[in-house]
Design brief:
70 residues, mainly alpha, elongated
């Protein structure tokens, strides 16, 4: 089921206004679809080959928690 809430008037999200505000819901859906398509278009394509990282990059990724020390 589609949901749309008026966060200013209903911060607890208790009343779904998707039916009452169908035009706004459709606008948001169109904007979301456009965003998702654009994001997919700009996503780098991975060849499946392993990525070789230099030592400095590896250390930065480890420090940020993206990689474990090897």
């Amino acid at each position: 089921a589609e949901e749309l809430f008026d966060l200013a008037g209903d911060p607890s999200e208790l009343q779904n206004v998707a039916r009452e505000r169908a035009d706004q819901r459709k606008t948001f859906q169109s904007q979301l679809q456009f965003f998702l398509e654009e994001a997919a278009r700009h996503r780098p394509h991975h060849s499946g080959e392993p990525v070789i990282l230099d030592e400095a990059t590896r250390r930065r990724l480890e420090a940020l928690g993206y990689m474990e020390r090897q």
